[in-house]
TrEMBL record:
Recorded superkingdom: Bacteria
Family: Belongs to the KptA/TPT1 family.
Any one Gene Ontology molecular-function term assigned to this protein's record: tRNA 2'-phosphotransferase activity
EC id: 2.7.1.-
Protein name, entry field: Probable RNA 2'-phosphotransferase
Cited function: Removes the 2'-phosphate from RNA via an intermediate in which the phosphate is ADP-ribosylated by NAD followed by a presumed transesterification to release the RNA and generate ADP-ribose 1''-2''-cyclic phosphate (APPR>P). May function as an ADP-ribosylase.
Gene3D superfamilies assigned to the protein according to its UniProt record, in alphabetical order: 3.20.170.30, RNA 2'-phosphotransferase, Tpt1/KptA family, N-terminal domain
Stretch forming the signal peptide: none
Matches recorded under Pfam families: PTS_2-RNA
Swiss-Prot/TrEMBL GO biological process terms: tRNA splicing, via endonucleolytic cleavage and ligation
Keyword NAD attributed: yes
Keywords tagged on the record: NAD, Transferase
Length: 181
C-alpha cells in the first residue's frame, strides 16, 4: 500500500476536516482506529484491506511522526487547523441541507428523524455531491435526504457550522426532512 497517500488522508481527517469523514475527535484529538479505517476504506477501493498494523507501519516509517496509536485509538500529534474537538458554534443555516445515508437506515429516519447515533452531531452537507460522497461510505447507492434547515432553525432546531461544506445539528425532527419518492 502507498503509505504516503494513506498518511495524507489520515492527516487530513485528523488534523483538518474530520467531519468530512464523519469522525469526531475527543478532547485530546483521539478517534477510534476502526472509525478511521472504515472512512479510509470508503475513500479508495484499493484500501479495502487496510488494517491497524498498516497504520502502525505508516507511523513507524514516517520521518515526520505526525500520528500516534494507543489502545485502539489514533490521533494527529500536531498541525491541526481545527481545535482538538469540534466546537459547536450556533449559526443560521442555509435554507436547505442534505444528508446521505444507506437505504436500510431510511425507515429508522422516517420514524425518529435524524439522530447522531454514536456521534455527537448529525452531519449535513450543503450540496448533494458532498452528501452523496458521505452516503457512499454507508452504501454503494446512498439515499439523499433534503433537510429544510432554515424552517427547522426557525422552529428551534440548533445548527452549527462545520465548514463551508458541512453543517452539524444535535438532531433533526422528521417533519423537516424530505424523503425521495
Amino acid at each position: 500500500m502507498d503509505t504516503g497517500s494513506i498518511s495524507k488522508l489520515v492527516s487530513h481527517a485528523l488534523r483538518h476536516e474530520p467531519w468530512l469523514y464523519e469522525l469526531e475527535l475527543d478532547d485530546k484529538g483521539w478517534v477510534p482506529v476502526e472509525e478511521l479505517l472504515s472512512a479510509s476504506r470508503s475513500e479508495k477501493p484499493e484500501w479495502s484491506a487496510l488494517k491497524e498494523p498498516d497504520l502502525a507501519a505508516m507511523i513507524a516509517n514516517s520521518d515526520k511522526k505526525r500520528h500516534e496509536l494507543l489502545d485502539g485509538k489514533i490521533r494527529a500529534l500536531y498541525g491541526h487547523s481545527v481545535p482538538n474537538k469540534l466546537l459547536k458554534q450556533p449559526a443560521e443555516p442555509p435554507a436547505v441541507l442534505y444528508h446521505g445515508t444507506s437505504p436500510e437506515t431510511v425507515a429508522l429516519i422516517r420514524a425518529s428523524g435524524l439522530q447522531p447515533m454514536d456521534r455527537q452531531y448529525v452531519h449535513l452537507s450543503v450540496d448533494t455531491a458532498t452528501a452523496e460522497q458521505v452516503g457512499r461510505r454507508k452504501a454503494r447507492f446512498p439515499v439523499l435526504l433534503e433537510v429544510q434547515a432554515k424552517v427547522a432553525a426557525a422552529n428551534g432546531v440548533a445548527f452549527y457550522r462545520g465548514n463551508d461544506l458541512v453543517w452539524l445539528a444535535d438532531q433533526v425532527p422528521v417533519q423537516f426532512i424530505e424523503f425521495p419518492d
